[in-house]
């Protein structure tokens, strides 16, 4: 167009289609499905660990005191046996340990009986695991194992992909050029506002 | 609202009363707990330690008993227990649980401050002073830090000058009873003037080091020094 204007009857140039969207949608979908399990693990554990000061998400605590008829037999094994009989415990102990002249410990997998052999006072204490939460927290907090770090890194990369690909999923007014941008800015404003208002680290 | 059946109306009115009374009781009870607890906090805020610092560090609230706060438990077996004292020392050694109990014991009431903002005042711990263990191990002049080592690779670190204070100990009793599993049985560290994550549960070793080694939480965004009076919670 030498004069810089369109010819009045020229056909509209076909809009160039963005071919990356179908691929991105497919990847977004599959990675999304793949990440559901890990998201549940991390989100559940995150909620549980956020409120650690209010409860123990890993274990239920057991703590009781019993008063037995003293004195107990002087032989450790006999004292332990007699104690367990009086308390109606049928489980076999893992060990019987003479901790001091007056203290005998009877240890089970999930609880210990600390017996004062002179007074007959028995402190029973232990923990019963909350299996699913304990497992989730163990993974989330990445305690004592290196291999899980790689899984967690992949998961983090997947989440980044889901977040970024999600930006471009929907074209038009509800996408990044319209309402999507507003919601995106609102979401980004939450951490920014928190840091500004709280004074930051 | 009225109901055609007066018996039904009466039953529903009674149910509403019981629900209201129940809800009121819960609110009052919770309010009572809150008020009582706040009283403990106010009392503590009014007190001063012998070193001149307020008894309650800023941002803390007093509760009545230690909370477990999680962690991956170690082996609670006293017969399998070993405490290794080593590193920058001339005479490293290892103690069984019975040997630890046979050493000179101290019982001290200590205030405990958790980074999650609760504090417990006057928790009684019994055990052996770290300073006594360090003396037996014959510290080298190069020792600068103490690394508490615990089950499953957990560690925490404090400077040697702090570790040798008489309040820092290796404890096996809490409030007159053997240390519960949830609090690190059979043995845990107690470093009371720091946020409580420094006081490693399920303690397995005292390693003296010539350099600082930030531990489990210190490498996960928590403060390396962890002084509650400076609110050194995060890095």
The main sheet of chain A comes to: 5 strands, antiparallel
Please tally the helical runs of chain B, counting DSSP H or I stretches of 4 or more residues: 4
| Shape-level CATH architecture of the largest domain in chain B | Alpha-Beta Complex
Biggest interface pair, counts = A-B, 30 and 29 residues
Describe the structure.
The complex is a heterodimer of chains A (201) and B (235). By secondary structure, chain A is α+β, with helices and mostly antiparallel strands. Chain A has helices at residues 20-50, 76-87, 131-140, 147-167, 179-198; strands at 59-67, 95-98, 103-107, 111-116, 121-129. In chain A, helix 1 packs across helix 3. The longest helix of chain A is centred in the first third of the chain and has 31 residues, at 20-50. Chain B is of the alpha+beta class. Chain B has 4 helices and 11 strands. The radius of gyration of chain B is 23 Å and the shape is elongated. Chain B starts with 5 loop residues before the first helix and ends in a 26-residue tail after the last strand. The chains are: A alpha+beta (201), B alpha+beta (235). Chain A binds chain B through residues 49, 52-53, 56-59, 61, 63, 94-95, 97-100, 103, 105, 107, 111-112, 114, 123, 125-127, 137-138, 143-144, 201, and chain B through 67-73, 76-79, 97-98, 101, 114, 116-118, 152-154, 177-178, 180-182, 185, 234-235.
């Amino acid at each position: 167009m030498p004069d810089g204007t369109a010819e009045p009857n020229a056909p509209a140039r076909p809009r160039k289609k963005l071919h990356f969207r179908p691929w991105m949608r497919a990847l977004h979908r599959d990675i999304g499905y793949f990440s559901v399990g890990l998201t549940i693990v991390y989100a559940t554990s995150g909620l549980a660990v956020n409120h650690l000061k209010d409860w123990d998400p890993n274990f239920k605590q057991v703590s009781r005191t019993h008063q037995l008829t003293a004195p107990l037999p002087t032989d450790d094994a006999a004292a332990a046996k007699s104690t367990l009989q009086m308390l109606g415990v049928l489980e076999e102990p893992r060990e019987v340990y003479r901790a001091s002249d007056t203290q005998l410990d009877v240890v089970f997998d999930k609880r210990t009986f600390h017996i004062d052999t002179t007074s007959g006072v028995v402190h029973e204490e232990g923990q019963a695991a909350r299996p699913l939460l304990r497992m989730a927290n163990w993974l989330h907090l990445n305690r004592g194992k290196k291999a899980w770090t790689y899984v967690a890194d992949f998961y983090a990369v997947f989440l980044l992909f889901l977040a970024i690909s999600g930006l471009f999923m929907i074209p038009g007014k509800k996408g990044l050029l319209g309402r999507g941008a507003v919601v995106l800015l609102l979401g980004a404003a939450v951490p920014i506002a928190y840091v500004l208002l709280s004074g930051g680290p | 609202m009225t109901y055609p059946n007066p018996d039904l109306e009466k039953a529903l009115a009674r149910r509403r009363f019981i629900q209201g009374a129940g809800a009121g009781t819960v609110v009052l009870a919770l309010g009572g707990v809150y008020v009582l607890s706040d009283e403990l906090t106010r009392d503590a805020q009014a007190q001063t330690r012998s070193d001149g610092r307020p008894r309650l560090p800023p941002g803390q609230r007093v509760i009545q008993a230690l909370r477990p706060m999680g962690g991956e438990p170690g082996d609670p077996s006293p017969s399998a227990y070993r405490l290794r004292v080593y590193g920058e020392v001339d005479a490293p050694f290892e103690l069984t649980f019975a040997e630890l109990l046979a050493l000179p014991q101290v019982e001290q009431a200590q205030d405990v401050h958790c980074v999650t903002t609760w504090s417990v005042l006057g928790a009684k711990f019994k055990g052996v002073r770290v300073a006594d263990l360090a003396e037996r191990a014959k510290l080298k002049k190069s020792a600068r830090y103490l690394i508490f080592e615990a089950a499953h690779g957990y560690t925490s670190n404090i400077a040697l000058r702090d570790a040798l204070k008489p309040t820092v100990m290796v404890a096996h009793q809490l409030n007159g009873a053997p240390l519960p599993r949830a609090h690190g049985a059979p043995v845990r560290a107690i470093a009371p003037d720091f946020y409580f994550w420094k006081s490693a549960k399920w303690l397995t070793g005292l390693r003296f080091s010539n350099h600082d080694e930030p531990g489990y939480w210190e490498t996960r965004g928590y403060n390396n020094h962890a002084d509650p009076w400076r609110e050194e919670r995060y890095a």
